[in-house]
Every structure is written in C-alpha cells, then in structure tokens.
Amino acid sequence: MSGKSFKQITQDISKALGPLHKEAGGTMTGFGAMAKAAMAPGVLSELDKELIALAIGVTSRCDGCIGFHVKTLVRLGVTREQLNETLAVAVYMGGGPALMYAAEALRAFEEFSS
Question: Can you give the three-state secondary structure of 13-75, one letter per residue?
C-alpha cells in the first residue's frame, strides 16, 4: 500500500497554488470561472459531473485530481457503488494504468470518508 495521503496531497496543492493565484491571477480567475460553469448542475447533476471528472483524473493518472474530486464526491454523498461503477468505466477506457489509479481513488474515498 502506498504511503500517500490524499488529504495531504490536496492541502499541499492548495498551498502551492497560492503564489500562482497572485502571479497569474487572470488565468486562475478564468480557470475558476470555467470550473464553476462546467460543474454547475444542469441536465447532469453536480454528482454526475464530479464522477466524470474523477474518471478523467484516473485515466490521466493525476493524484491531485483524484484527491480533489473524491473529496467533493464524499461531500456530495457518493456511494461506494457509484464510485465503483465509475472506476470500472475508467479502467475500461484507460487499461492497466487506470486500474492502478482506480485503486488509489478507492483509498482516497476511504480516507475522506473516515
């Protein structure tokens, strides 16, 4: 088992982004606006959109993406069954490397759920 802490990963990334907010404020403001618009509930719920984002994070092998999206999914009340179905699709689309990160997403779920 990996020694990664997804709580620590998300905290570290948030801290590291501080200078970028100051030094590239326009870009960061634009990215934040895009994220807010993309994740707003519409035909798809916020939960559905977060599951899609997690699947992309898994197939992109992005620890930070997994951490932030699982944290939000837990806040939104995702079930383990919803998470597992999403991860199954991510593994189908991403193969073996995605399988390794799907396991990490389950670890993040357990960490943020505790």
Answer: HHHHHHHHHHHCHHHHHHHHHHHHHHHCCCCCCHHHHHHHHHHHHHHHCCHHHHHHHHHHHHH
In tens, the pLDDT along 10-48 reads 999 999 999 999 999 999 999 999 999 999 999 999 999
Residue 10 lies in a domain: yes
pTM of the predicted protein model: 0.93
Instruction: Please indicate, yes or no, if residue 61 is contained in any of the structural domains.
Output: yes
| Residue 59 forms part of a structural domain | yes
DSSP conformational letter for 77: T
Tell me, yes or no, whether 100 lies in a domain. Answer: yes
